[in-house]
Amino acid sequence: MDTNSDDLAEVERRARSIRRRVVTVVERIKVGYLLQGLGAADIFATLFFRELRLDAANASWPGRDRFILSTAHNTALLYSTFAERGLIPESALESYTQDGSAFEVNASERVGPLVEATCGSLGQGLSVGVGMALSLRRQGLDSRVYVVLGDGELQEGQLWEAVLSAASFQLDNLCLIVDRNYLQVEGHTDKVVRMDPIAPKFAAFGWRTLEVDGNSVGEIARALDVARETKGAPTAIVARTTPGAGVPFLEGQMAHVAYLKPEEARRALADLEAAQ
After folding, report:
1. Mean of the pLDDT values across residues 157-162?
2. Which residue, 235, 189, 231, is CA-closest to 211?
3. Which of 5, 65, 153, 252 is the most exposed place for a label (fewest CB within 10 A)?
4. Which pLDDT band, with edges at 50, 70 and 90, does 151 fall under?
5. Alpha-carbon span 229 to 252, nearest angstrom
6. What string of DSSP letters covers 55-94?
7. CA count, 13 A, side-chain hemisphere, 22
8. 174/162 Cα distance (integer angstroms)
9. Rounded distance, CA 239 to CA 147, Å?
């Protein structure tokens, strides 16, 4: 993968464009997972425009890398990224959450092969990823599996069974990214169940662990490079993200579901345009 500054600048440009799409999508339905979408846009842009091996013309290509969004409700971001990457038509975003649309709030396989697994129940995405990574290895395929996990999901017991299994099977074709934004439905994660330090916990289970600024494309890209080069162990990247990142008046807000007024959407889009 390219690591030059022009490459990273393009990924950053894509992240800003994805953020604009997220704002537009949420403004259309007036409420949604806005802050999380803005916060994780740099992760998604780096994955979909630098890291993942995909075929836009053939979503079922056996040689593709697999991407699993365990935080399956973060679809304003997921679908915006799909559209930015040319994997779905722009018109798909207009049907988001409408009755009968495959583009629901929780990503499901109704969308098609782009959604590798329906993960509406939180904490299950890594278990699916472990199974996929093990299957790919047994088939002799060099495809990789990437799982994006919300930090609140670390409170699920099933997650730690998957962590133990991945290390036991030495799944070096598996990379987990924890979106560490301290935000879950009940509020700040520390007020529900404190989880820090996270990286040492994964290391104790036998994972290669890295901690990065999840709003720095450069740091994310370098961590993904390390993950790809790691042999004999899965990799966990703990990416610290800021809810609302990229839109100053939204940054740091801790609303699990955000209401977005038209005038706020215009202001957010203006801020994103000015950042170019």
Report:
1. 96
2. 235
3. 5
4. very high
5. 34
6. -TT-TT-TTSPEEEESSTT-HHHHHHHHHHHTSS-THHHH
7. 34
8. 12
9. 13
**170-225: per-residue pLDDT in tens?**
999 999 999 999 988 887 898 889 999 999 999 999 999 999 999 999 999 999 99
Which residue from 9, 128, 1, 150 is spatially nearest to 66, judged by alpha carbons? 128
Could you count the other beta carbons within 10 Å of the beta carbon of residue 150? 25
Q: How many CA atoms lie within 13 A of 252 on its CB side?
A: 2
Closest to 256 (Cα-Cα) out of 181, 177, 172, 144: 181
DSSP, collapsed to helix, strand or coil, labels residue 104 as: coil
For residue 112, give both structure tokens: 């098609």
What domains does the chain contain, in order, with CATH numbers? 5-274 (3.40.50.970)
